[in-house]
Amino acid sequence: MERRWKSGRGRTHQVKHRTNGYQKGYMSRIEKPQVVTIPATELNLRAGNVLRRVAVDREHVVIERSGHPIAIMLPIHDYQALMKSAEHESSTTQNA
Asked: Cβ contacts of residue 54 below 8 Å, gap of 6+?
């Protein structure tokens, strides 16, 4: 599934959507987030719009430079859940 990302300059960029499966925790009980890929130049031009989409619409945004993924933006609650899960996995492997 592909969607278009409209830039402020009237250009339209193709946006790749991917969905990632979630393991245990609260994420498995809710709808999977929309994953959108945008070029770094688009983030530079429309940072406020991208932040709104991440914070309000709970989208995960993959930022690409020269067609290669370099970073990801995700809502703070998703990040905290990810860190908590990683911490829990780390502590269980140390105790084993």
From this structure: 60, 61, 73, 74, 75
Residues of the chain with pLDDT under 50: 1-2, 17-28
User: What's the confidence (pLDDT) of residue 62?
Assistant: 97
3-39: b (≥16 Cβ within 10 Å) or e = eebeeeeeeeeebeeeeeebeeeebeeeeebbbbbbb
Cα separations in angstroms, 13 against 30, 41, 65: 29, 11, 14
The CATH superfamily label for domain 2-95 reads: YefM-like domain (3.40.1620.10)
pLDDT one-digit tens code per residue, 1-14: 445 555 555 555 55
* Secondary structure of residue 96 in the 3-state scheme: coil
